[in-house]
């Protein structure tokens, strides 16, 4: 918790602020958390892909499937979280392609960004299996007569290490940009409230919160 940009002791009472500036601050915080989720997923993905590349091929097919499920799950969450930062919502300040070029001088960043959004659409498609394509064929016996029906599948490749690392680099750069905006927005919100009277503050809805523990973490509702 901060007051005017500086750490503060736990408040006696916490009041909900529903101004336009406060809503923008809450939205920036949500986008920052999404970018942090992308980073955490990418870190885990690098570990998982590295372990798969360095270790011996598992003899147990179930182990292979489980490892693939973990990679797909992490990658899907990373894509959804990343794309959400650029989604327009009423009253929200979505990140833009200009923000990307401001945060990263990499000339390929916009191409990477657009590919990530396409991948998000692929993995989030409610009607298409993103991991495997299935086909049905008819089997013929030696005489050429139909002998049965065969179902074949083509497994889609898992995400590669380069794509994961590039995604993490983009999320890291954007995190710094959003963090700076959060600090500036906190100043704006406090500037709107610092001269409010006790009566004006008492009229606001009271929020429940947990005081910071020894590690400095806190939560509010």
Walk me through the topology:
Blueprint: E1 2-3, E2 6-7, E3 14-15, H1 20-54, H2 61-84, H3 97-103, H4 109-124, E4 132-140, E5 146-155, H5 161-193, H6 198-202, E6 206-207, E7 209-210, E8 219-220
Note down, in words, how this protein is organized.
- The protein is α+β, with helices and mostly antiparallel strands.
- The protein has a single domain (2-130, 160-216), classed as Four Helix Bundle (Hemerythrin (Met), subunit A) (Up-down Bundle).
- It has 6 helices and 8 strands; from the N terminus they run βββααααββααβββ.
- It has helices at 20-54, 61-84, 97-103, 109-124, 161-193, 198-202; strands at 2-3, 6-7, 14-15, 132-140, 146-155, 206-207, 209-210, 219-220.
- Helix 1 (20-54) runs antiparallel to helix 2 (61-84), helix 1 packs antiparallel against helix 5 and helix 2 (61-84) crosses helix 4.
- The radius of gyration is 24 Å and the shape is elongated.
- Residues 214-221 have low confidence and may be disordered.
Mean pLDDT: 85
**Count of spatially separate domains:** 1
Look at the helices and sheets and give the structural class: alpha+beta
What is the element string, with H for helices and E for strands? EEEHHHHEEHHEEE
Number of helices: 6
Q: How many β-strand runs? A: 8
Largest sheet geometry:
2 strands, antiparallel
Strand order of the largest sheet: 1-2
Low-confidence stretches: 214-221
Query: Compute the gyration radius: what is it?
Result: 24 Å
The CATH class is identified as: Mainly Alpha
Helicity, as a percent range: 40-55%
CATH architecture tag: Up-down Bundle
What percent of residues are in strands?
A: 5-15%
Spatial separation of the terminal alpha carbons: 14 Å
Shape: elongated
